[in-house]
Amino acid sequence: MSETAIIISRDNALVKSARAVRDGRIRELIFIEGLRLCEEAINSSLAIQDVICAEKIASDERGRRLLNAFQERGKSITFVSEFVFASISDTKAPQGLVALALRPDTNTSALLEKAVETPLLIIMHRINNSSNAGAILRTAEAAGAGGAILTEGTADIFSPKALRGAMGSSFRLPLWANASFQEVLAWCKHNGISTICADLRAASAHNEIDWTRPSALIVGAEATGLSIEEIALADKTLRIPMRPPVESLNVAVATAIVLYEAARQRKAVS
User: Fold this and answer.
1) Based on the domain organization, do 81 and 149 belong to the same domain?
2) What pLDDT sits at residue 180?
């Protein structure tokens, strides 16, 4: 560490580039921060380009193991001062480690074709809260879903907040992003996948749906949900029973309830 050059300027080219990636101004790369997410990243197929470390990381045993793993894979590692790292970090209590990686390809439905023979998918339609989007993805993987589709207008699933919410699921689940709602429904129909969404007026509860068949759960924007016209385009509707006067749930919570019922029927989670 004593022989390692430490960047002390916030105007360093790599430092400025890292901030641009963090803020979504360099779309080709994604910003991965923290020990846990960097561990998930290095164990995935992500193409990591740069690793940026605060000075304190060298005194942390877990951090040293991660640095060794990055070095063994031939990754470029740059040390910066605590002051400089604070200008890069997207968290209030930085752990001192950031990786910049190439953004995974999510532009084609072909990525979902490796899903299981009887697919269970989640369709996020205009979910605009990054933390919710990440949490939904994490829940989807935990409940045994085979992939996720994110329509146009949905939050960037590779933004720093979404990555923290997903805690590694973004690196593992097959994803198809930026598709139109109509394109997604047509693809599901072509592949024999039943599309199902929530509707307060639905006759069937979430546990009365047959989830053992190829299925895709559609969840809509936090504030507005799905429009009447969008609901009408789905193959089936469901409701989650709730005691009055409660009429709705957080979208991530509602997704978890439904997906775990699907998992129970499929016995995907022990």
Assistant:
1) no
2) 96
Question: What is the number of structural domains in the chain?
Answer: 2
237 and 177 share a domain? Answer: yes
**136, amino acid identity:** I
Q: How far is CA 177 from the centre of its chain?
A: 11
Contacts of 157 (CB under 8 A, 6+ apart): 106, 133, 134, 137, 148, 150, 166, 170, 175, 177
pLDDT tens, residue by residue, 171-221:
999 999 999 999 999 999 999 999 999 998 999 999 999 999 999 999 999
Domain region containing 81: 6-102
pTM: 0.92
| Among the listed residues 96, 91, 137, 140, the one whose alpha carbon sits nearest the alpha carbon of residue 119 | 140
Same domain? 113 vs 203: yes
Q: Are residues 258 and 155 both part of a single domain? A: yes
Q: What is the pLDDT of residue 200?
A: 87
Inside any domain, residue 170: yes
pLDDT of residue 46: 95
Torsion of the alpha carbons at 111, 115, 120 and 123, rounded to the nearest 10: 0
> Contact at 8 Å (CB) between 50 and 14?
yes
